[in-house]
From TrEMBL:
The protein's name: Fructosamine kinase family protein
Entry annotated with the keyword Cell wall biogenesis/degradation: no
Organism: Terrabacter carboxydivorans
A family per Pfam: Fructosamin_kin
Upper classification of the organism: Bacteria, Bacillati, Actinomycetota, Actinomycetes, Micrococcales
Similarity comment: Belongs to the fructosamine kinase family.
Alphabetical keyword list: Kinase, Transferase
GO molecular-function term, one example from the UniProt record: kinase activity
InterPro entries: Fructo-/Ketosamine-3-kinase (IPR016477), Kinase-like_dom_sf (IPR011009)
PANTHER family reported in the protein's UniProt record: FRUCTOSAMINE 3 KINASE-RELATED PROTEIN (PTHR12149), PROTEIN-RIBULOSAMINE 3-KINASE (PTHR12149:SF8)
Amino acid sequence: MVAVPTPSSAHHRKSWAAAPDGFFEVEAAGLRWLGEAQPLGGARVVEVRGVGPDHIDLERLHPARPTPEAAEALGRGLAVTHGAGAPAFGSPPPGWSGDAWIGRQTQGNDPTTSWGRFYAEQRVRPFVRRAVDRGHLDAVGARTVDRVCDRLASGDFDDHRAPARIHGDLWSGNVVFTAAGAVLIDPAAHGGHGLTDLAMLALFGCPGLDRVLAAYEEAAGLEPGCRALVGLHQLHPLAVHAASHGPAYAVQLVESARAFA
């Protein structure tokens, strides 16, 4: 995606002439939905200044050195944002229906009552199939991941937590630390499980990760042992990368899946 300079230094434009229908509109809807939690103490989200079929205009951010205090505030803010909730697992941002994207790959957002069924059928299996079709994942590895998906779909990993309002693509590149704290950008927002956001931060690294996790766990009241499930919540981003980036991620996907098969 190309950043195009605009006349005003107060915002910047991301554009893509070949953007599929709705690509930038769903990003804007997700940012606004996540941003609704800010007045309650939720994580700060970049402000949308305008959106069109081939572009989105966003508040211009000025990166700064991450601090431990900013990491802790991010953890607490994420807990509040997640706690703002969603109508169901897989619910899209309000006012949006149809395709959603993670990066430039499509994924579904069909509301589902069970987190495990949603996660297996809409977040892991579709990308496993793409990875196999592209020759990045062999049949043996795919069967290992499918066994975990069977367990997910049957509810083995469901808990009592209501659907969370999650960012959905929360790798470190989508967290911009500024002088005023961390700001979230580029979401794939939907109703999910809060651990999914934390798992992606852990997978790809984040400044002050331990402080983020500790602050989140305290604010969200997570049960002891929740970090043992982080690998389960990393299956989606690993499957996405196996489909788009090749066999190295497929190896990591299968290794992570073995712990839960």
